[in-house]
């Protein structure tokens, strides 16, 4: 860490929510996935792929990038524990 980097004390990445500003510099696929989640609330990766017409691998990459920016929340599906449900988690 250099002297010019801000020190964040008492913060945890899991507690921080992202903003649309965080999405701005992400790849187009991540922006598309974010918009689809904004309109559809909660979806599985397969549902996102079907809605966006993106390959599953691209959706997985987009979700990982969104997760790095703390703008997406995921949890296991109660209906099928093999699947995860994704929700947009952005401060307005």
UniProtKB/TrEMBL annotation:
SUPFAM superfamilies noted in UniProt: Winged helix' DNA-binding domain
Organism: Natronobacterium haloterrestre (Halobiforma haloterrestris)
Lineage: Archaea, Methanobacteriati, Methanobacteriota, Stenosarchaea group, Halobacteria
Region called Disordered, residue ranges: 1-22
Protein name from the UniProt record: Transcriptional regulator, ArsR family
HTH marR-type domain boundaries: 25-82
InterPro entries membership: HTH_MarR-typ, WH-like_DNA-bd_sf, WH_DNA-bd_sf
């Amino acid at each position: 860490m250099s002297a010019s980097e801000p020190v964040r004390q008492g913060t945890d990445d899991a507690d921080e929510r992202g903003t649309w500003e965080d999405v701005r510099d992400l790849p187009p696929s991540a922006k598309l996935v974010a918009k689809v989640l904004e309109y559809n609330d909660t979806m599985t990766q397969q549902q996102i792929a079907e809605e966006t017409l993106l390959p599953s691998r691209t959706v997985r990459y987009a979700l990982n990038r969104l997760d790095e920016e703390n703008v997406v929340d995921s949890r296991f599906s109660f209906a099928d524990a093999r699947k995860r449900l994704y929700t947009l988690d952005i401060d307005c």
